[in-house]
Amino acid sequence: MQPFGKVPHSPTPSPKPQQSPFDGFRRSTSLESNSSTISQENGLARLTAAAKRKKYFRRLFKFRQMDFEYAFWQMIYLFVSPQKVYRNFQYRKHTKDQWARDDPAFLVLLSFWLLVSSIGFAFVLKLHFVGFLKFIVWVIFIDCIGVGILIASLLWFVTNRYLIIAPPRGQDVEWGYAFDVHLNAFFPLLMILHLFQLAFLNSVINYDLFLSRLFGNTLWLVAIGYYVYITFLGYSALPFLKNTRSLLYPMTLLVFVYFLSLIAGWNFSNGLCYFYKYRVL
């Protein structure tokens, strides 16, 4: 019991720490710094298409920074097991947040094989030097890059418009990835029709015989079939696409044209030689 009239004792509040007028500024500056760091990290992880393209072409002539051994490994597995090549594309998506290649080593090696095959065709078709130069320009910039841009743009539009899962959840098919799929599919076609076929053009294929036509057109069937199949694998590897099996429908038309060519007497390889020879004259 306390005596009457005395005010009960209350503990004195502890003195508040003196706040500097600059503390709020420091906290806001710290928050802004953190947010800028986060946005900067996101910017590095999620580059725009223009930034990715600029980075890719910037490394195009820096051969020491390219992984040619790995690119050569990819070329081998495009024949043996193309699924493994696209598993690596999935790994790149998880580590670098992009599906398309960021190393131009594959394109450089592909250009080298285009050059080698062009030299072989120049000898087989007996092209003069100027015709050989025109032939290289046609094969690289028209047959490979030009046609590749058209096919990649068409499939890029079709997949983003009709095959993407709704809602897309912020994911879409990168145009660079669509072009990489074309390069992957083009390499086996190049090896079959521009290198392997060279050894048999003048000795077996370029004759008006059924066996010549059968052998040459079968090579075309295998080469274009590889192109369609590897293209299908490229888009089926994307988890946000549906009904990718529809990309295999051209196989039916391909087989039909193959048997029709055997019946009608069309020799695709012979026609290709005439086309290559007279377009550079």
UniProtKB/TrEMBL annotation:
UniProt-annotated stretches for the region Disordered: 1-37
Stretches that traverse the bilayer: 106-125, 132-158, 185-207, 219-241, 247-269
Main location (coarse class): membrane
Pfam families: UNC-50
A GO CC term attached to the entry: Golgi membrane
Domain of life, source organism: Eukaryota
Biased composition annotated in UniProt, kind: Low complexity: 28-37
Subcellular location as annotated: Membrane
Membrane-protein topology: Multi-pass membrane protein
Keyword annotations: Membrane, Transmembrane, Transmembrane helix
Family that this chain belongs to: Belongs to the unc-50 family.
Protein name: Protein unc-50 homolog
UniProt organism field: Octopus sinensis
Lineage, uppermost ranks: Eukaryota, Metazoa, Spiralia, Lophotrochozoa, Mollusca
